[in-house]
Amino acid sequence: MKLISKILVVLALLHCSIGANAQNETELLVQHLQTGNFSALQIFWDNQVESSILDQVAAKPLNAQQANETLQAFFNQKNIIGFEKSAERKLGNTLYLTGKLLSSQQKYNLTILLQSTKKGFMIVSMRVN
User: Fold this and answer.
1) How far apart, in whole angstroms, are the C-alpha atoms of residue 86 and residue 128?
2) Which residues in 3-17 are b (16+ Cβ under 10 Å) and which e?
3) What is the mean pLDDT of residues 41-51?
4) Is the predicted pLDDT of residue 8 greater than 90, yes or no?
5) What CATH number has the domain bearing residue 103?
6) In sequence order, what are the residues at sequence separation of 6 or more whose Cβ sits closer than 8 angstroms to the Cβ of residue 65?
7) Each residue of 37-47: b (16+ CB within 10 Å) or e?
8) Phi/psi of residue 79, each to 5°?
9) How many domains is the chain partitioned into structurally?
10) Are 83 and 90 in contact (CB under 8 A)?
11) Which domain holds residue 29?
12) How far is 68 from 45, CA to CA, in rounded Å?
């Protein structure tokens, strides 16, 4: 009986540490979006990223560099000055992050889907509308 309780405690601690790691990663991602730090954001992109910006769906998945450059171009074109996180939800190996991209004239909704990998959470999809 004591062995089972020890195993349960270890599993609970492991679960908590995994959740805390995911939260730390997403907080870092949010910080990079808030500051527009695209060189630091580069590490979060997966090898293939589905992208949709203002209903302009990419013809094919973008590689990490293309996805980063596409989002950076949108920031520059719309004069994005910040990001406000609205929600974060983890479902199995995926994590959804939503928020608003802020410009002086308008707000844009940003939805990011991250997938858990050996390297941590990687962005596999982004949508701006």
Assistant:
1) 14
2) eeeeeeeeeeeeeee
3) 94
4) no
5) 3.10.450.50
6) 42, 45
7) ebeebeebbbe
8) 55, 50
9) 1
10) no
11) 2-128
12) 7
